[in-house]
Write a structure and sequence with these properties.
alpha/beta, Uracil-DNA_glycosylase-like, hydrolase, about 230 residues, DNA repair, UDG_fam1, 6 strands, DNA damage, four-stranded parallel β-sheet
């Protein structure tokens, strides 16, 4: 797989693109295309989370599972969709919690680039999916790559907040150097914001204010969670 044009701080990931598992993953994706499958997101957006959020600027990590599998939804950031695309239910619930937590009115769109530009790494554990088939590209190699991404963030000297929503995210980042265990990063765990789980612990968890309080306590700027309507 050809390495994308990543910010210099992510260049430590370069060896991953030469690893046998990544070559096998590339062959799998080529096979999907040859078979006529639609794969999301577009190739140009696959590593967008890393492109928008350099490693040395990461302040918060929000970990998703795999990209949206509907037409026009996935664009490389977990939970995010471009303007003009209906806001997915999980993101609607994220907005509800944001409003309850910080009083920020719900955005009229679902594009989270504004968060990414401030150091919120919106990372999916799997970076591609077949149209209409959730989890269709799991266990093909992406998990190993994104483990390397999380490990690179975990190795940073500056404290980072990990927002782990749901059992999948919590298991994925179980090795993070948690401040509650004497480490330097804050891990905030709760139920997933999906309609099936949000009322079992996501609502009321106040992740946004807790993240900002931790960042400010450790000398880092808080995140402006309000999404401007002018984003494109």
């Amino acid at each position: 797989m050809t390495p994308p044009s990543l910010p210099p701080s992510w260049q430590a990931l370069a060896p991953e693109f030469e690893a046998p598992y990544m070559r096998a993953l590339d062959a799998f994706l080529e096979g999907e295309r040859a078979a006529g499958a639609r794969v999301f997101p577009a190739d140009a957006d696959r590593f967008r989370a890393l492109e928008l959020t350099p490693l040395d600027q990461v302040r918060v990590v929000i970990l998703g599972q795999d990209p949206y599998h509907g037409e026009g939804q996935a664009h490389g950031l977990s939970f995010s969709v471009r303007k003009g695309v209906r806001t997915p239910p999980s993101l609607v619930n994220i907005y509800k919690e944001l409003e309850a937590d910080l009083g920020i009115p719900r955005a009229s769109h679902g594009m989270l680039d504004h968060w990414a530009a401030q150091g919120v790494l919106l990372l999916n554990a799997v970076l591609s999916v077949r149209m209409g088939e959730a989890a269709s590209h799991q266990k093909r190699g992406w998990e190993r790559f994104t483990d390397a991404v999380i490990a690179a963030v975990n190795a940073q000297d500056k404290p980072v907040v990990f927002l782990l929503w749901g059992a999948y995210a919590q298991k994925k980042a179980a090795f993070v150097d948690d401040v509650s265990k004497g480490g330097r990063h804050l891990v905030i765990q709760s139920a997933h914001p999906s309609p099936l789980a949000a009322r079992t612990g996501f609502f009321g968890s106040r992740p946004f204010s807790r993240a900002n309080a931790f960042l400010e306590t450790h000398g880092r700027a808080p995140i402006d969670w309000a999404l401007p309507e002018t984003d494109r």
